[in-house]
Amino acid sequence: DNANRYGPPHRAAEKFFGTVLRKDPAPHRDELILSTKAGNPIGPSPLTDEELALIDRHGVHGTGVRV
């Protein structure tokens, strides 16, 4: 699990995972599948569904950059 809040600092787990992927399983990188738990609300939110979806899309892009 590489949640962007894991660290310290935040996002450190994603960056570390990306480093490992580049070094060890690099020949098989295109065969790996990453999954996410995005969109799983943990409680009431003052944000609209559209705003939450935008945050999820932004987070997925950031993860792709870091990993």
Question: Main attributes?
Answer:
67 residues
What does it look like?
The protein is mainly alpha-helical. The model has no long low-confidence stretch (mean pLDDT 79). The chain has helices spanning 12-23, 49-66. It has one domain (12-66). It is elongated and about 45 Å long.
Q: Termini separation (Å)?
A: 13 Å
- Identify low-pLDDT runs: none
Q: Estimate the mean pLDDT confidence.
A: 79
According to DSSP, the number of beta strands is 0
Helix-strand makeup class: mainly alpha
Q: Helix content range of the residues, please? A: 40-55%
Quickly count the helices: 2
Measured by DSSP, the beta-strand proportion falls in under 5%
Radius of gyration: 14 Å
Shape: elongated
Described by strand count, sense and barrel closure, the largest sheet is: none
Domains, number: 1
Quaternary structure classification: single chain
Topology as H/E string?
Answer: HH
